[in-house]
Automatic annotation (TrEMBL):
Its EC number is 2.7.13.3. The keyword Cell membrane applies. SMART domains: HAMP, HATPase_c. This is histidine kinase. Keywords: ATP-binding, Cell membrane, Coiled coil, Kinase, Membrane, Nucleotide-binding, Phosphoprotein, Transferase, Transmembrane, Transmembrane helix, Two-component regulatory system. The keyword Cell membrane applies.
Length: 601
């Protein structure tokens, strides 16, 4: 293959890929101001605002949560430590009472003299028992047995401070009593860390007190033993009176300030002050009413926050990608049907009224398409109606041209007849011609399309003057016109055709004396005009025709009920109504319901 052919092939492949590239570029391009761009911004805002609020709230409440968690741990550790102290005192009580009941101690308390050899052996035995307790319990500093009768005292450390304390004999103690009291160091702010524990030494035979067993406890060692690896910065033990029994404080000013809290407060509590937590609880040991207060300092566990920034960055990036994909998917779902609907509308603009929406979108889009289809149907009906009205208008113009007469010629001719009738002294013909002239002037004149009811009644009276010449007294007229209704406006010559129709099609065929009642009244904002006769009425077939076609085919002076309906519709639209009712041989009633119109003057 030549170089030219390879170049042409490469050029062809490039052009074949180029449209696909353009489609991809068009797919992933975001135009500012478009629905896609607005949706992307909206999704980012909707997703980021709750996340930012949650982050702020997390930062705000995390410290409080960490404080509560650490305070709970401190309280639990404090309770465990006090339980250990209680168990330590219980162990001391058990071992000292076991020592008090030992046979050698009981024998040594007897008043009967012992041989020197037996006394020496017994002292050595008791001394070994005394030294056994400090070896087992590291927090026991010294132990003494004092007997009141022989005046003897045995101690593990005869040169220590306990012999002097034992010499200060306590009050008489009962069998199960104990005495626990701090060793006075002479400094109220810095009390001694030693506590003296005393129980009575009872004679089993007489059950009387023969002395005391006193144990000197080192509280620092005891608390360190029960505390284990847990670090306490300050520990104060005080009684219900607020006197400090034991104090261990740190060197910082904050520790000293915390230790100086009100010792009159005895209920259990846990306080958080900055990075310091203070816990207070009751030391539940029989024979004492003491309270323990500890202080712990340390950093709260913020290790959970270290990866928060990285997590937030990942969440924001994921949310941006999801928002971008969601905007593309949403726009494809929404704008695709919108573009199709827009194309159909352009076809409709060009005259294609059959460009219907056939579905293929979301429920809302289908509803919009159905509304568009209804609009096309309505538009097509309106166009047909306009064409029909134009056709009727042309027919009316043709009819008007066919039946049009020259008004001036007609007036002059009738006036000539009237003067001839007067010259020949025939006044009836003159009156009939005068009435006919007024009717023609009202019908063909140009004084406006509306007349007052009273004027319309006058035209009816002129018409009846003409009919009287023909029918005589066979037809009688009755008028009930409300004064307010008399000044209301109606289309001219709207009632006269109804009277004519009543005479020609109702009274004349009946062959009996006719009566026509004309009424006009108002109710609320409506004007009612009614023409009622006692003629032949309406047959069942005629009523069915009125219900189905709402028009009569018969003609009356060239104007039928159909033309009256159209005239009312032309002037009033759907606000005007014409009702025809009647029964065979009982007469006919025609009622007009019109909106009230009056002259502005």
């Amino acid at each position: 293959m030549s170089n030219e052919q390879e170049r042409l092939k490469c050029h062809t492949q490039t052009h074949s890929y180029f449209p696909e590239f353009l489609n991809m570029k068009k797919l992933f391009s975001i135009r500012l101001g478009s629905l896609q761009a607005k949706l992307l911004v909206y999704l980012l805002l909707v997703g980021s605002i709750p996340l930012v609020c949650a982050t702020v709230l997390f930062y705000k409440h995390s410290n409080e949560y960490a404080e509560r968690e650490l305070a709970g741990h401190v309280k639990m550790a404090h309770e465990q430590m006090l339980l250990g102290v209680k168990q330590a005192f219980a162990e001391v009580d058990r071992m000292t009472r076991s020592l008090a009941g030992d046979y050698a101690v009981q024998r040594y308390m007897e008043t009967s003299p012992l041989r020197e050899l037996d006394e020496r052996a017994m002292k050595e035995y008791i001394d070994d028992k005394l030294r056994e307790l400090p070896r087992q319990l590291k927090y026991v500093s010294d132990l003494c047995i004092s007997m009141t009768a022989p005046g003897l005292m045995l101690c593990t450390n005869e040169n220590g401070m306990l012999p002097d304390l034992v010499s200060q004999a306590p009050e008489t103690l009962n069998r199960n009593d104990r005495l626990i009291e701090p060793v006075d160091a002479g400094d109220r702010d810095h009390p001694s860390d030693m506590v003296r524990y005393t129980i009575p030494l009872l004679d089993r035979k007489t059950n009387t007190s023969k002395g005391y067993i006193t144990v000197l406890l080192n509280m620092n060692r005891l608390i360190s033993a029960v505390q284990g690896k847990w670090t306490v910065d300050s520990h104060v033990v005080f009684d219900a009176k607020g006197s400090v029994m034991y104090r261990q404080t740190g060197d910082s000013a904050e520790t000293e300030a915390a230790a100086a809290l009100d010792f009159g407060r005895t209920e259990p509590f846990t306080l958080v002050r900055g990075e310091t937590i203070i816990s207070q609880n009751k030391l539940d040991v029989d024979g004492v009413d003491w309270y323990s207060r500890i202080q712990v300092r340390g950093q709260f566990p913020f290790s959970a926050f270290r990866s928060l920034r990285t997590t937030l960055i990942i969440i924001f990036a994921s949310m941006a990608v999801l928002s971008l994909l969601s905007s593309f998917i949403f726009t494809r779902i929404v704008t695709g049907p919108l573009h199709r609907l827009r194309g159909l509308m352009k076809r409709a603009e060009l005259g294609d009224l059959k460009a219907y929406w056939l579905g293929g979108g979301t429920g809302e889009m289908n509803d919009l398409g159905e509304s568009y289809n209804q609009m096309l149907n309505r538009l097509e009906e309106l166009i047909k109606q306009v064409k029909r009205e134009e056709s009727l208008k042309k027919e009316a113009e043709i009819d008007a041209l066919q039946y049009q007469l020259n008004p001036h010629f007609l007036y002059n001719t009738l006036n000539t007849i009237k003067w001839v009738a007067k010259l020949h002294k025939t006044p009836q013909i003159s009156e009939v011609v005068s009435s006919l002239v007024r009717l023609l002037q009202a019908s063909l004149g140009k004084k406006g399309d509306f007349l007052e009811i009273r004027e319309e009644i006058g035209l009816i009276q002129d018409y009846m003057e003409i009919q009287h010449f023909r029918y005589g007294d066979k037809v009688k007229m009755f008028y009930e016109i409300d004064p307010f209704a008399a000044s209301c406006l109606v289309p001219r010559m709207i009632l006269q055709p109804l009277v004519e129709n009543a005479i020609i099609h109702g009274i004349e065929p009946s062959g009996r004396e006719g009566k026509i009642h004309i009424k006009a009244w108002t109710e609320r904002d409506l004007l009612f005009c009614q023409v009622e006769d006692n003629g032949t009425g309406l047959t069942e077939q005629t009523r069915d025709m009125l219900r189905e076609t709402r028009e009569l085919k018969e003609r009356m002076s060239g104007i039928g009920l159909r033309h009256i309906r159209e005239k009312i519709k032309l002037y009033y639209g759907d606000d005007g109504k014409l009702y025809v009712n009647g029964k065979e041989s009982e007469g006919t009633t025609v009622r007009l319901t019109l909106p009230i119109h009056r002259n502005e003057g």
